[in-house]
Predict the structure.
Amino acid sequence: MAKKRRKEPRGAARPRIKNSGYSEGGASETSSILKAWHPLKLSSKSDIDRHLHTLRNRAADEAINTPIGAAAITSSATHAVGTGLTLFPRPKFKQLGISADEARVWIRRTMAEFGMWADSKQCDIYRRNNFYDLQYIAYISYLIDGDAFALFRRKAPDALMPYSLRLQLLEANRISNPLSSGLAVPFNVEMHAPTAGHRIVSGVEIDADGAIAGYWVSNKVPYDRVDTQGPAQWIRVEAFGRETGLPNILQICHDIRADQYRGVPYLAPVIETLKQVSRFTTAELASAIVKSFFSLFFTQTATGGDLNAILGGSFEGDPNAPVVDVGEYALGPGTLNALPSGVDVKSVDASNAQSVFGVFTQELVKQIGAALGQPYEVLMKNFTSSYSASRAALLQAWDEYKMRRVWFARDFCQPVYEVWLAEAIAIGRIEAPGFFDNPTMRRAWSNAEWFGPTMSILDPVKDVTGSNLRVAYGLSTREREAAEMTGSDYEENIEQLAYEQNMMTKLGLEEATKFA
């Protein structure tokens, strides 16, 4: 027997669904907190490129004029790049059909040749910095501006430098949309390129598919009032050589959007907070300085009458003059000063009530550090907690530094090495059979690793023990551990150790003396 359906009372309305998904959460239109909040996420050109001019200027100011902003930039540069990433060629010798010993000989030869070029200031078109110093400059520029550029230039070899390759670093604001007037408009994000079907987005020329075809580089920074070169002029630099396929210009950048062509300054997420902390710090410092002064004021008491009564006679001077001559009185231990009748002395309260300054700013700096991937302890160099807490902070920061090191090596160091290696092989200074004939062989010869500064060691015994165990269980190699822990070359280490051991044996030193 079918169940009889209950009839709804006449006039009764069915209950309505009150929420669905995020309708009463983050997407609520009725919440008193959210109903007036209507942000828009548009294209990367609207969200990023449209505001790059302002972001770069503010980020640069924070990096120069605020201690925390400067600490964030320099800490990242010091740990990610430091004195420069060192090349360790890793040719895939099995794929190349050579032995491990032959590969080691090739590696030593390549490192020596690359060192001759990289250690020399002639690798810089301006002859001011070697390759390792250029790394630091490029990394700092990349952090502050969001991206940095390196242009490959050529100069005739000479007796001291057999290579023609030169590098010219360019700051981000020199890559912009060209205008015939010589003045770049900051908000001019996109324009048509001279090449049919191409567009220029913030100085980056792209084809119909969105692939990068070239960059528009100005001869000076637009709006620079000090540079006397006249109006800015732009030249087009093709992204890749037509015959070699090698890059003509490098863009050091890390994208966060799918259709992004220009980078975002490292400090962009924390610019507002950094500025507020800076203003608060300046205000508190000024207040503390003022309150640190011990000031005395001489006042006329209500019972003292006028100046004639105080001074005992007629007064013909300025009625707005000081009550007493302060030069007649002094402050000091055991000092007594007799004041005229009717004159009192009062001091300004010098107590300093900035009791919440440290706690408040510390919490804000913690938020800044979290947003930048640098824990408070590392950002502020404040290791006052336990060993475990300090090491955890270092490990968290080190993950950030290693990640940016890998990005930087991919965008700058490795492409520079590959362009240099192609020239070294072409002029016969390095032999690499099949390099120009087979792209697979070329990739195998060009394979390399880049090592940089090591993580700070809080407890050397524990860190060395961990390193030893990683090697013992096949999780790492002695060469990698030497490079990552001390930045040294394992083969050079053991050769030097063998030499030292041989010397001690010749001098008849005891075994215990060797390790004393």
